[in-house]
Amino acid sequence: MRIARVIGTTVSTIKDENLTGRKLLILRPTDETGKVNGKPYVAVDTLDAGVGDLVLTAHGSGGRQTNQTKNSPVDAVIMAVIDWLEVAGEEVYRQS
Amino acid sequence: MRIARVIGTTVSTIKDENLTGRKLLILRPTDETGKVNGKPYVAVDTLDAGVGDLVLTAHGSGGRQTNQTKNSPVDAVIMAVIDWLEVAGEEVYRQS
Amino acid sequence: MRIARVIGTTVSTIKDENLTGRKLLILRPTDETGKVNGKPYVAVDTLDAGVGDLVLTAHGSGGRQTNQTKNSPVDAVIMAVIDWLEVAGEEVYRQS
Amino acid sequence: MRIARVIGTTVSTIKDENLTGRKLLILRPTDETGKVNGKPYVAVDTLDAGVGDLVLTAHGSGGRQTNQTKNSPVDAVIMAVIDWLEVAGEEVYRQS
Amino acid sequence: MRIARVIGTTVSTIKDENLTGRKLLILRPTDETGKVNGKPYVAVDTLDAGVGDLVLTAHGSGGRQTNQTKNSPVDAVIMAVIDWLEVAGEEVYRQS
């Protein structure tokens, strides 16, 4: 899974029928402290995450192992909102 | 999913039999504002997208979760045409 | 899918039993005009492609969605030989 | 599989229901001697690995081939803790 | 598939039960002439390959399409030992 920050949203009228009602958020990967450092991608949100949240995303077929994403043409899902991150015994991120 | 812009088309006479009638478009990934920044790839179009459109593509087995692509030797599909993108509360792209 | 050029062949005596009789070609990815620009990889050829051909390859489980590759330990297949490529309304490649 | 070092832990209250009770660790890839050299990612731990351990992780659908991860929205699992690594006949890493 | 050279071995006592008896080798990707040029990774060996051999590896679910790897948490397998490589009509590698 990747650690990533939610930075925005996408809106589409023309889309695959299985995506009706799905929330597709824009994310950017972060390092292990929550600092953004990679290129943007889009994942389905099933946890009501919001812009600014630090989350984990599962990719590939892993992105379809939820009731909301199974059998849909998607390849990434937000599967956890991060409360805190600890590295080498130190808290390096806490949700504010 | 990746945000990408449709830049062109491919034409093939010799191809897998399951690809007969499929439209294979050339895309380039973009950043979160729709600006092209990555290497080209090819995806099946099931939404009648056109050159210049900003779209979302699903990759891997996710690319085969549509009626037109299931059981075909493909690994990417256009599953949404983007109307607009919003980042940090600002509209950063709108389909013209 | 990737746009790639066939640059060579591999020969193996010791291999998985499901690969007997399979042609494994060496390819390099190209840009959207057919110019080689990436690292080499190997794909199964089911279309009788030859060295010099510009082709499309499907990756991951997509590489096993053909009669010749299903249930085999492979992750890439040539699924189309490119006749021509068009970018922004201009023909940028044509098979010679 | 990747060789990686466990560097930390993640804690999430809001997560997919199939992740309840799962330990999600932060890792960084290493070279063939155990020296960290890549970007962090997160994997499910089913082997009671700890911070500092050098491990192997399986990715994609391979990450769900364990009793603890099957049918869950995850894409990486720790499937071995490394005792030692040998390169070109020399021991280059041993668990201390 | 990737062209890669076997550079070493891994030894693990604590591992997933489906990996008992499996040989996990360290490899590095090479260019199309067998010259090492990429980062190390680990694959299951089902062909009795040895350090120094040039091989092909299949990744993702392709790595589990063998009797020894099916249903195991692995994502890469050595599926061919390379005898020779030919690029543009020239032999560029031969097993010594």
Unreliable residue runs of chain A: none
Portion in strands of chain A: 35-45%
Q: Helical stretch count of chain A? A: 0
**Overall geometric form of chain A:** elongated
The largest pleated sheet of chain A is described as: 5 strands, mixed, barrel
What integer value in Å does the Rg of chain A equal? 14 Å
Which fold does the CATH topology of chain A refer to?
OB fold (Dihydrolipoamide Acetyltransferase, E2P)
- Count of β-strands of chain A: 7
CA distance, first residue to last residue of chain A: 22 Å
Query: How many domain units of chain A?
Result: 1
What would CATH call the homologous superfamily of chain A? Answer: EutN/Ccml
Kindly describe this structure.
The structure is a homopentamer of 96-residue chains. The first copy, chain A, is mainly β and 96 residues long. The first copy, chain A, is built from no helices and seven strands. Chain A has strands spanning 2-11, 23-29, 41-45, 54-59, 76-81, 84-87, 90-94. The model of chain A has no long low-confidence stretch (mean pLDDT 97). The C-E interface holds C 7-16, 18-19, 24, 26, 28, 39-43, 51, 60-61, 63-64, 71-76 and E 1-3, 29, 31-32, 37-38, 46-49, 56, 58-66, 69, 77, 79-89, 92. Strand 6 (84-87) of chain D pairs antiparallel with strand 1 (2-11) of chain E, so a sheet runs across the interface.
